[in-house]
Specification:
The chain is 45% helix and 12% strand. It is an alpha/beta fold. The strands form two sheets. A five-stranded mixed β-sheet has the order 5-4-3-7-8. It has a four-stranded parallel β-sheet with strand order 2-1-6-9.
Length: 325
Amino acid sequence: MNNELRPQVVVSKCMGFDTCRYNGQTLPDKFVEKLKDYVDYHPVCAEVEIGLGVPRNPIRLVLENEQIVLYQPASETEYTQQMIAFSHDFFDSLKAVDGFILKGRSPSCGTKDVKVYLGKSKATGSIKGQGIFAEQVFKRYPYLAIEEEGRLTNFRIREHFLAKLYTMCSYRQMEKTGNMAALVKFQAENKYLLMAYNQKEQKVLGRIVANHEKLPVASVISSYKEHLGIAFFRIPRYSNYINVMMHIFGYFSEYLSSPEKTFILDSFEKYKSGKISLSVPINILKSYVIKYNDSYLLEQSIWAPFPEELMDISDSGKTEDLIRK
């Protein structure tokens, strides 16, 4: 990957940047801290920005007349429209953004599983929903890398977030050129990473780049961005990666001895059964690509879609985190 890439990331300010939580505290996050050396952060506390002080009386989400509102019980005040207005103003102020890391379960920033009360009284039940600021983030930037810090303790979610973040950053850099040749190069270098994520969309992207309709470059680039986001919408399946690795294996398999072939294919099976991480068969394949000096394969982003220094196989073990509702 391009080591000069430095993604622009909006982050909840309470995660180690300022003591702005409702109780006047801050909650530093290990991953957010580690990422500081590799991205440019844009910290924000939406609740403070709409005029709520520190410390402040808690706010909550309430379902009222089939609409979710942001409500402060102590003052009996709704802040929904203020939050939406601030969100739009804040997004407009950003010169560039590639991703978001938001505070989980917050009535403003939680991306999922935020408690939504079924009434304004304490005795009501609740359902799960999404924070008001987070909701606006997804509406404005549906295809960017957006996560909350709690889910990023899961290795596969974290790996997916980073791959998407750096790919979107790379795309943004390419997009600024407005150059069709740059788009063709981007598609070529990301072919196997895209295939691992979504083979159907990878083919769609290929057709967009081919541009048989002779559409204007700006139109092609815009269409490509939409489908790139769709391609990265979900975490790739194990079977997708095995399919891609078999494709790459086919480039040089005829030059290998029988024991070498067995060794490589066995690594695929071990990955499939969860005995080893993806990095093992990927690096085995890369060693042969280097050996046979295949320039096309060497340029592929799949070998390192994000900085290797950010690879951390620690895992929360919460498989339910893999499901984005």
